[in-house]
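Task: sequence design from structure.
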C-alpha cells in the first residue's frame, strides 16, 4: 500500500503516548482476547494484524452490542469481556478533534460503514511502526485502543485473566 505523504506527515506530528493501563476486550465464543484480526476492520486493512480494545468495560460491551445488532442473525455464541493489562510504548493519540482533523478524519468517518478512511490511517500508523492507535468510539464515550502486535516492544505487556460473561 502506498501512503499519502501528507498523511504520514500528519501522523508524525500527532501526539504519541505510552500506555500502561487495564483495557477491555469483548469476545464471542471461546476465542482468546489476544486473537488478532487480520481480515480487516475499521482501523486495519486486510493483512495488518490488530487487536481492538476499549479503555472502559462499558465501551467494550457497547462495541459487542453493535456487532450483534448489525448481524442478519443474532449470534448464539457466548459473549465475554476480558480485563487486559497492557503496556505499549508508541501509541498515536487521535482522541482530540484537532488530532482527527489533522489526519483528515471526522467523527462521521469513524462511524461510517465504509471503513476506507480509517483503514488508511491505521495502515499508515502500522507502516510507521507504532504499536497502537488511540481513537474515539462512536458506540460510547470510551476511547478505543487498537493494538498493532507486530510492533510491540520486547518489554510490552499484554496479559489477561478470567473472562466475565456479558
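Answer:
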Amino acid at each position: 500500500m502506498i501512503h499519502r505523504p501528507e498523511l504520514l506527515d500528519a501522523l508524525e506530528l500527532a501526539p504519541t503516548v505510552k500506555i500502561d493501563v487495564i483495557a477491555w476486550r469483548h469476545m464471542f465464543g471461546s476465542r482468546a482476547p489476544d486473537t488478532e484480526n487480520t481480515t480487516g476492520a475499521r482501523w486495519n486493512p486486510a493483512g495488518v494484524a490488530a487487536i481492538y480494545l476499549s479503555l472502559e468495560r462499558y465501551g467494550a460491551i457497547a462495541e459487542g452490542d453493535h456487532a450483534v445488532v448489525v448481524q442478519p442473525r443474532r449470534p448464539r455464541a457466548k459473549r465475554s469481556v476480558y480485563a487486559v493489562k497492557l503496556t505499549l510504548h508508541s501509541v498515536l493519540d487521535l482522541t482530540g478533534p484537532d488530532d482527527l482533523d489533522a489526519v483528515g478524519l471526522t467523527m462521521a468517518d469513524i462511524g461510517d460503514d465504509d471503513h476506507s478512511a480509517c483503514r488508511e490511517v491505521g495502515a499508515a500508523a502500522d507502516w510507521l511502526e507504532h504499536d497502537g492507535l488511540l481513537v474515539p468510539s462512536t458506540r460510547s464515550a470510551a476511547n478505543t485502543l487498537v493494538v498493532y502486535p507486530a510492533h510491540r516492544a520486547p518489554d510490552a505487556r499484554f496479559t489477561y485473566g478470567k473472562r466475565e460473561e456479558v
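The chain has a mean pLDDT of 95.
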